[in-house]
Amino acid sequence: MLATAVMVIALPASAEVCNGAPPAIAGDGRVLGHLPYGDAPPDELVAVPADLAVRGCAVRRDVLPDLERLLHAAAIDPAVGGRILALSCHRTLTRQGGVFCREPSTEAGTRAVSVAPPGHSEHATGYALDFAFRPRVNDCPDAEACIAATPAFRWLRANAPRYGFEMSFPVSNAQGVKWEPWHWRWVGTSAGEPGAARARALFATARRRFPASPGIDTAIEVANVTPPPTYLSLPPFTDARAKRRRRR
């Protein structure tokens, strides 16, 4: 029998608010509402085949078989009305810092509703990715809520759990993160699937406190597994545009 466990998977990384000052860390380890995840070790990442991605994408090795099965199944199902592709997969801490700080004039808490600070993003785990739909319907951009009105999204919502994926940030989620119908994390179809127990251990707190919808096997029973290694060092991040402004 699996034993219920509370596991600390990663320590808070050196998240920044783009001006060099680290934000406050809540008692549960969250920064600006986001849980700590660190970064995936490079030797556990593999590339998603180019024909299955909008651009270069990497995920954990254990994720790729299910991801390929999902994308291939979507490609041959006429209900999709096109193709589902991987859009944004693993992001390094430095890359996440750039995404979080690309609008430095916006207050950090406001930015955190739609993007996690570095060290606290599911993307850094290698188990999460954004999906894109092609062709675009009604000129709906990638990573916008209008994708939820497309046949491809309806197919994804109905079928992604069959391949081990769940939607991390559903409508009105208790974590306070913007609804992101394009963002899904892999936890495997069962805890016995290769790598799934480690993914579930990593996301145990998120799944218990902020359930996915649709979710997979939401009873959080964590076996005695070794948590995935995480890399938490983050070089100081400063906004490159600010540097240019100072030189002028």
Descriptive notes:
By secondary structure, the protein is of the alpha+beta class. It has 7 helices and 6 strands. The protein has helices at 64-76, 93-100, 108-111, 151-159, 196-202, 204-209, 240-247, and strands at 45-47, 58-60, 83-88, 128-134, 165-167, 183-186. The strands form 2 sheets. It has a 4-stranded antiparallel β-sheet. The chain is globular and about 50 Å long. The N and C termini lie far apart (65 Å). 42% of the residues are buried. Mean pLDDT is 85; it is low at 1-14 and 231-248.
- Mean pLDDT equals 85
What does the radius of gyration come to? 18 Å
| Low-pLDDT stretches | 1-14, 231-248
Strand content: 5-15%
Coarse structural class: alpha+beta
According to DSSP, the number of beta strands is 6
Largest sheet: 4 strands, antiparallel
Secondary structure tally, helices: 7
Q: Provide the spatial order of strands within the biggest beta sheet.
A: 3-4-6-5
Classify the helix fraction into a percent range.
10-25%
Shape, principal axes of CA atoms: globular
CA distance, first residue to last residue:
65 Å
Could you spell the SSE succession in H and E letters?
EEHEHHEHEEHHH
